[in-house]
């Protein structure tokens, strides 16, 4: 069986394809990101369709599409619907215990510890949409210099500040302090710095966001490949999600176009062998959380237009896997992530065409497939589908 030199693993953030069987536990019955965006936003995505995206999502039968890619859908085994849990499971680390969440805000003693450590008071301390809370509390923040602290349905401790009041590097420092404080029972998945600019009534978040993740609790695909001497390259917020662990190189590009540029730059170089792992966040961050169906559709269209650039550079011994980490249905009533299955697509010149991968029991099937495709010795959670799709 032919082995691959390179695997490009792309996570389209928040692009789920239908509520999981346990969605009732999360208040997400009826969520279906791709279906709702496709029906209401009507995106033109011919390249993703050709790879089998609509077949994977159950929107169009395979016999009508005749996809050239291999396609299926995956169920998240771990409890949760956040970025960290989803990416870790994709990378073969399935959490047995969910990260803590704070639907009523953080305990006062925790907030006091943070305030004392950074020397500033805080406001907020409640679940909220990021854009909504800076509109609500931005003026008070400008007047008092108090940091805006908030959370969401995910396991996150978020700190927002105007860049004219708290420069981004200083805000990152405060978030590192929070990361050190948030341990044990309060070990949230991520601490997120949320800088913004602008005037009252016209605030805008900037690209100076940084995520400070908890350290992975076990080996991931990145760790295994690095230990075996493979190159492991991160694009976008991958380095944040894995707390900079298991990478041999990284480009912290911000925005989907910049991330695709970074992917292409890596693929144009012939001096590496292994995994390129990229997160494309715009669908989730800019549109899913803001209930912007048309914006979400346009983000899919923008990636679709650039997808051929990636495919052309894979070569005879490269493959691409495209998937997602959770749902973020912009047509759903809430602004939070949604507990959904995710599509999985695979394509390469050394792969069969149009293989139906079915419903996979865990996101970790991706990591098992990458390991087998590259010929790595390590084993992680999940069941590989590489033998089902490889030629020869």
Outline the secondary-structure elements.
Layout: E1 6-12, H1 33-41, H2 46-51, H3 53-56, H4 62-65, E2 70-74, H5 83-90, H6 108-118, E3 122-127, H7 130-144, E4 147-151, E5 156-162, H8 168-181, E6 190-197, E7 204-205, E8 210-213, H9 221-227, E9 231-235, H10 238-241, E10 249-251, H11 256-267, E11 274-280, H12 282-288, H13 293-312, E12 318-323, E13 342-347, E14 356-360, H14 365-374, H15 386-389
Parallel strand pairs: 1-11, 1-12, 2-14, 3-4, 5-6, 9-10, 9-11
Antiparallel strand pairs: 2-13, 4-5, 6-7, 6-8, 12-13
Helix pairs in contact: 1-13, 6-8, 11-13, 12-13
Protein model, in words:
The chain is an alpha/beta fold and 392 residues long. The chain contains 15 helices and 14 strands. Strands 10-9-11-1-12-13-2-14 form an 8-stranded mixed beta sheet, with helices on both faces. Strands 3, 4, 5, 6, 7 and 8 form a 6-stranded mixed beta sheet that branches. It has 2 domains: 6-96 and 216-389, Alkaline Phosphatase, subunit A; 108-213, 2-Layer Sandwich (Alpha-Beta Plaits), CATH 3.30.70. The N and C termini lie close together (5 Å). The protein has helices spanning 33-41, 46-51, 53-56, 62-65, 83-90, 108-118, 130-144, 168-181, 221-227, 238-241, 256-267, 282-288, 293-312, 365-374, 386-389, and strands at residues 6-12, 70-74, 122-127, 147-151, 156-162, 190-197, 204-205, 210-213, 231-235, 249-251, 274-280, 318-323, 342-347, 356-360.
